[in-house]
Amino acid sequence: MKDIIYTVLTITLCLVLGKLINFSVSGLPASLYGMIIYCLLLQLGLVKPIKVHKTNQWAIKHMGVCFIPAAVGVINHFELIQNHGLTIIGIIFFTTFALLTFVAVLAEKYLANKSESSPSTSNC
Asked: Among residues 28, 29, 49, 27, which one has the least CA distance to residue 38?
C-alpha cells in the first residue's frame, strides 16, 4: 500500500511540475514535461524504481480501459466507415505520404544548409 501511495504522489508531483513548466515556458504539453521529469527522477535515483515498479506495471496492464471511448466512437459511426471506408483509408495514406515527403524535403534542405555552413575538418 505504501508503494502505491508513493507512486501516485510521485507521478502527481511530476505532473504538477510539468504544468508549472508548461505555464511558464509552453512549447510542449504539460504531461510530456511531467514524463520527462519522472524519467529524470528515475535516472538520477531520486525515485526508487523498486518502489514504483509494481504500481506502474499494474497501470500499464489496465491502460486499455483508457482507449475504450475511441472504440465506442468507431462502433457508433460504423455505418459511416462502412460507406466511406476506402475513401478514409485513401485519405490516410495520401496525407501520410504527403507529410513524410514534406518533412523529408525540409530535412534535406536544412541538413544541406547546415553542412555547408559548418567548417570542414578534413585532413589533407
From this structure: 49
